[in-house]
Design a protein that fits this description.
about 200 residues; mainly beta; Fumarylacetoacetate hydrolase, domain 2; 18 strands; about 15% helix; globular; binds magnesium ion
């Protein structure tokens, strides 16, 4: 089983639960509608990867997301993650009303910085993604259509979370193709300081 780092300890999630369409500006950029119900999908443990690939059967797209680890009834830690997506295939599957796993749950489709412990999640908690030094994505908890607490409640209404499971909370506007050689720098910040950052070079 694959692991992520939390405060220098290895955590092995049984699954990754992902929220889709959680920022209005990203819903607009893909031409989607605001859904009646929260959009939730899963990635398996085998989706946890360490290398940022630009291609896997087709060109991959990035989605930077605030990610939380669930422990003892609450979100206890945060990281920045990349939800890697086969956008062309996903569009095809969506058009046919078919499940997204082929486009979203493939091996190495979820990358994470280290996780850092968090006491409370406030509205100022923010992510930033820079590609080659230029800001491509920025989002805060305040911009989410569904708050982390609402997400946790909704997931637990039908999926049991195990300690160590990861929840990816959706991506703000600015998603795009991954190009070989590009340098991706992600960070999670509060108003005052950077909590954690991570750099990947696309291969
Ligand atoms: Mg996503």
């Amino acid at each position: 089983m694959r692991s992520v780092k939390l405060d220098n300890n290895d955590i092995t999630p049984s699954k990754i639960v992902c929220v889709g369409r959680n920022y209005a500006n990203h819903i607009s950029e893909l031409g989607n509608e605001i859904p009646d119900n929260m959009v939730i999908f899963l990635k398996p443990n085998s989706a946890i990867g360490h290398q940022l690939r630009s291609y896997h059967q087709e060109t991959l797209h990035y989605e930077a997301e605030l990610c939380f680890i669930y422990q003892k009834g609450r979100f206890s830690a945060v990281a920045i993650g990349l939800d890697l997506t086969k956008r062309a295939l996903q569009s095809n599957l969506k058009a046919k009303g078919l499940p997204w796993e082929r486009a979203k749950a493939f091996t190495d489709s979820a990358l994470f910085s280290d996780f850092v412990s968090l006491d409370t999640i406030d509205d100022e908690l923010a992510l930033a993604l820079l590609v080659n030094g230029e800001t491509r994505q920025a989002g805060t908890v305040a911009m989410m259509l569904h708050s982390p607490q609402a997400i946790l409640k909704e997931i637990q209404s039908f999926i049991e979370l195990e300690d160590g499971d990861i929840v990816m909370t959706g991506t703000p506007a600015g998603v795009g193709e991954i190009v070989t050689g590009d340098i991706f720098a992600g960070q999670v910040r509060t108003r005052e300081h950077v909590l954690v950052s991570k750099q990947w070079q696309a291969i």
